[in-house]
Write a structure and sequence with these properties.
It is a single chain. The protein starts with 6 loop residues before the first strand and ends with a helix. It is built from seven helices and five strands. It has two domains: 136 residues, 3-Layer(aba) Sandwich (Rossmann fold), CATH 3.40.50.2300; 85 residues, Helix Hairpins, CATH 1.10.287. By secondary structure, the chain is an alpha/beta fold. The radius of gyration is 30 Å and the shape is rod-shaped. Helix 2 runs parallel beside helix 3 and helix 5 runs antiparallel to helix 6. Strands 2-1-3-4-5 form a five-stranded parallel beta sheet, with helices on both faces.
Length: 237
């Protein structure tokens, strides 16, 4: 099986830390995209969609909180595992970051083995979630295919009956007795009622299936309401 190298986006304004951390990650066979400020980090995340993001907090142009919030607002990047790698060790900073919805918070100076283990675990967890999602979607598509196959029969039967009766009426126009006409109309009405009942049943089934899949596919998401908190507090944290 072909090995696919995972890509890590490293956002760090300190050149020495950025270069040393990038070298550490590359030795572990990660592809590293290293940038020097938050704005460049946001652009790189949008363009490259890395498998994981390591981000400092105190940076020029755009700080780490601003980076996370910008990426969290975009569905294309919101699900990328995000780890703060920062010198801010106060519990208030850590709590604020975790309330925002980041995946991990590692303080500098960091232990290399701990960092690598944290990254490995986060990427493996994300991969497991991705595979589970794919299986769920495959299962959902199969259910839809079965439903469509069943629908074609349930819809065609009453439509064919209606069409056949209408063709008989057109063919025998003027020769059909009132009793026969009433009988035809009764059959047509019955077929239409059957079709109407099925469409209602189908709608209920689709709604139930949709809700079931929403519940099953529900994955942990970054907390969106924290964006407002950050905007109100600015970068004071």
């Amino acid at each position: 099986m072909m090995f696919i190298m995972k890509t890590i986006l490293l956002i760090e304004d300190n050149q020495d830390i950025r270069e040393n951390t990038a070298e550490l990650l590359e030795l572990e066979n990660y592809t590293v995209i290293a940038v020097a400020n938050g704005q460049l980090g946001v652009e790189a995340a949008f363009n490259k969609k890395p498998d994981l993001i390591l981000c400092d907090i105190m940076m020029p142009v755009l700080d780490g909180f601003g980076v996370f919030i910008a990426l969290n607002k975009n569905p294309y990047t919101a699900g990328i595992p995000f780890i703060f790698l920062t010198a801010k060790s106060e519990s208030a900073d850590r709590n604020y970051a975790m309330n925002l919805g980041v995946d991990d918070y590692i303080t500098k100076p960091f232990d290399a083995d701990f960092l690598l283990t944290t990254i490995k675990n986060r990427i493996e967890k994300q991969e497991k979630m991705r595979l589970e999602m794919e299986w769920q979607i495959t299962d959902y598509v199969k259910e839809l295919e079965d439903m469509l196959h069943m629908t074609s029969h349930r819809v065609r039967d009453p439509l064919c009956r209606c069409l056949g009766l209408i063709q008989l009426l057109e063919r025998d126009k003027g020769k059909t007795s009132k009793e026969e006409l009433n009988n035809f109309l009764t059959h047509i009405k019955t077929s239409i009622k059957d079709l109407d009942a099925f469409t209602r049943e189908l709608n209920d089934s689709l709604n139930a299936a949709r809700q079931k899949k929403v519940n099953k596919l529900n994955m942990p998401e970054h907390t969106p309401h924290a964006v407002g908190n950050y905007i109100e507090r600015g970068s004071r944290v």
